[in-house]
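S.,

Sequence below, as promised.
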Amino acid sequence: MRETGLRELVRLGANESAFGPSPKAVAAMTAELPRLSWYGDPESLDLRDALAEKHGCAPSQIVVGAGIDDLMGLAVRAFVAPGEPALMARGTYPTFLYHVAGYGGTPVYASYRDDGRPDIEELVAVARGDLARIVYFANPDNPSGHFVPRDEMQRFYDALPHDSLLLLDEAYADFVDEAELLPPVFEDRLIRLRTFSKAYGMAGARIGYALSTESNIRTFGKIRLHYGINRNAQVGALASLQDDAFTENVVGETARAREAYYQLARELGTAAIESRTNFVCLGMESAQRATRVMNELLLRGVWVRKPGAPPLDSYIRVSAGTEPMRRAFAQALRAVLETL
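The prediction came back faster than expected:
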């Protein structure tokens, strides 16, 4: 907004929830504001109890962090020694790469396929060939939105070297039926990351959690910032878990938004990648054209992003918005495309 001089933006660039947090979460957080002078529980005991009930595990198999980004950093610090290889798809969610580079690991890459899917076979081959200490994989994927179904995901996990740790980013798992995801496995070579930023609408509160074995969770506990979790975020997250009706409505509204984007793509004669997230990638024919469209949309007050690496760099990525937001995006996109 500073760069463009605009006073407001249609925010469709960060995969935030356009549908807000649960009113129950807002009420609980508001009620707790007078106690803001108190630290939060450094062990997040009540929240971990609720999450353990949700996932059918023990609280000792859960650690709470300041969003998935925080937990990624802990995983890299804990399990990747300086110089050790850490594997990811080139162009995947970049924060993992930042942690690997920042803490001295050696990034190694596999590719996305031509259709925009992560190449699972190549990930396995590189993991075996480079003896990757950690393998990062997002399912559903960011930035493509693709989803790897349970059976295929199980084969991928089984094929990885058993001395490689799979860091499974499930930020968008709440938009998928739990039965479609990798079964609830608790093994030392698997850490699953979840967040309250997407379906629960609490991105600004910065709270997420990891599911793994008691051994891995104890390791996290040795290095995590124990008072690093926002107290009000703990309160809001706990209340959110008690409002299934709200979350189900968000998931439904998000699905409707995706369908609206697919329909827009058909009307414009452009490609759209089927998504299981709260965003959709729309094809713009080339990376240069996608960049130009993104920049021109910003000048019209609509903020979207685009992936940075091929083959997805020829797409723009638009978050699920409310109906007025979608209408503003469609109007602006049509106007931009008419000028190209």
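The chain has a mean pLDDT of 97.

Coffee later?
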